[in-house]
Design goal:
With 483 residues, the chain is of the alpha+beta class. It is built from eight helices and 22 strands. The longest helix has 21 residues.
């Protein structure tokens, strides 16, 4: 064997050994020589680097410079740092050193957008608590809502996670007099079907002939600390929101030659085709034609596998009361009312009324309302489903599972508080949000009315009503590339 071949063989063996050691959780510095590998193997035998495996990250004290003549100490761990706007993960000390090197100034430097850490064996990124660029109200325009807490929605709806050979029937379209394809205000079908699609599930809406696909069936109700598949839960929530809008779409009575599934805009105007004045009736218009249908939210009910529901979440009387309130407040579900510029009912990413072509007719979808109240217009009711889902979808984000979220609490008073204080106080980035200290929703469902949440004041994990508005700490999609 030649010397060159032997060297090549040793280099290959060293590379393989490096990979094996790192797969056991032990970092191998690039400068490590072959005779230094035995000490790293010993770390494997001793369990490797277990810091953070129980969620807690150990604390070191590091001295940093705050000015040319002053220093201070901060808590530090190499497994927790800062994420910038370019999705670059920074070690906290390296991040601060560039501020020092920049003349003790953040001017011209990339901005922080969150914190990353390695805990529970997971690589987790916590963005700053979610805010919306648009302040919005309940759908009546009565209650102005703050733009930093959000409900999840899909209240009292069964998570559809299984296929069935039988059609499932929903109300109110299961009433025979409500099934009349081509008639304004009626439904094409009262049924939907579900078909396995690889690991996922196709939800087929017979009312609009649309198919909505969730990527995994592993997104049902669950006990706490069981799930890490945040992306799949997030997409499931979104697809089911869209699916429920389609289930209760009503025929406009206006014919079309467009292929099935084609979408078009729905305008909300008065009887003359103009913007409605306060207290003036509003109608759905499509392509310049008045449908004659009042611009009310479509009724809905719980799609209950195995049986029909007799009482919907949005009944006719509640829909009527909401419509009356919208007229009085000069708003509508498309945010095109005379007072909509100051009373938004649509949040970022939300969809108002839209039409879809179904077997020669336009069918009108409206926002889905599941947490409703026809007499008491309060901050936790009459909000179009589901703000946290649609805003995050619009921004390309996901809500974490509670297992992903819990390390925020475990390291809140040490590393997260230290980093936030470093950014706000030392580096002068005063716009950085404070550390979260309230209930925070996760994406995992406990049952049809509650999701798992983490209470950042005390650290308890509990299921919390999903129509309640809570803090949202979102994460980037797991497909996001970091540097």
């Amino acid at each position: 064997m030649s010397v060159a071949t032997e060297i090549q063989r040793l280099q290959g063996a060293k590379a393989s050994l490096k990979t094996s050691i790192e797969n056991k959780g032990v970092t191998v510095p690039s400068s490590t020589k072959l005779d230094g590998y035995s000490a790293l193997v010993e770390q494997i035998q001793q369990g490797g680097d277990t810091d953070g495996m129980n969620g807690f990250l150990s604390v070191e004290s590091k001295t940093i410079s705050t000015s040319a003549s002053a220093t201070t100490n901060i808590t530090y761990n190499k497994k927790c740092g800062i994420l910038d706007e370019n999705y670059k993960k920074w070690d906290t000390l390296a991040w601060h050193q560039r501020w020092v090197d920049n003349g003790y100034s953040a001017t011209g430097l990339s901005k922080p957008i969150g914190i990353w850490m390695k805990a529970f064996g997971l690589d987790i990124v916590f963005l700053w608590p979610l805010t919306s660029n648009v302040s919005y109200s309940d759908v009546t325009g009565t209650i102005t809502l703050v733009n930093n807490v959000f409900s999840i929605g899909l209240y009292n709806c069964i998570a559809i996670t299984s296929a069935t050979a039988a059609d499932r029937t929903v109300w109110p379209a299961n009433q025979s007099d409500m099934i009349a394809h081509g008639t304004a205000g009626k439904y094409k079908s009262a049924t939907f079907r579900t078909v396995n699609n690889g690991d996922g599930l196709d939800m087929i809406c017979d009312n609009t002939l649309e198919t909505f696909t969730i990527p995994s069936r592993n997104v049902g109700d669950t006990n706490a600390f069981m799930k890490d598949n945040a992306d799949e839960y997030m997409e499931s929530f979104y697809q089911q929101c869209e699916f429920f809008r389609a289930l209760f779409a009503i025929c406009s009575g206006i014919a079309t030659t467009q292929p099935n599934g084609t979408k078009t805009n729905v305008d909300i105007l008065n009887a003359s085709g103009q913007q409605a004045a306060v207290n003036e009736d509003m109608y759905f218009w499509i392509g310049g034609t008045n449908t004659g249908l009042y611009a009310k939210y479509n009724l809905n009910c719980i799609p209950n596998p195995g049986g029909n529901e007799n009482n919907g979440l949005l009944t006719q009387s509640i829909a009527d009361n909401i419509y009356t309130k919208q007229k009085a407040n000069g708003v509508n579900m498309n945010d095109t009312g005379v007072n909509s510029s100051s009373k938004h009912v649509l949040y970022e990413g939300a969809k108002g009324a839209e039409a879809v072509a179904v077997n020669g007719y336009w069918y009108i979808k409206t926002p889905y309302l599941s947490a409703t109240n026809g007499t008491s217009f309060a901050a936790n009711s009459n909000i179009a489903d589901a703000p946290a889902i649609y805003i995050c979808k619009h921004k390309g984000l996901v809500l974490p599972t509670e297992r992903m979220l819990y390390p925020y609490w475990l390291n809140k008073t040490t590393h997260i508080s230290s980093i936030v204080n470093l950014l706000k106080t030392t580096e002068g980035l005063i716009d950085i949000p404070n550390v979260a200290n309230s209930f925070c929703f996760s994406i995992t469902r406990y049952n049809r009315t509650n999701n798992w949440s983490v209470f950042f004041e005390r650290g308890n994990i509990q299921n919390y009503t999903i129509s309640t508005r809570c803090t949202i700490i979102a994460c980037p999609l797991s497909t996001q590339q970091y540097t």
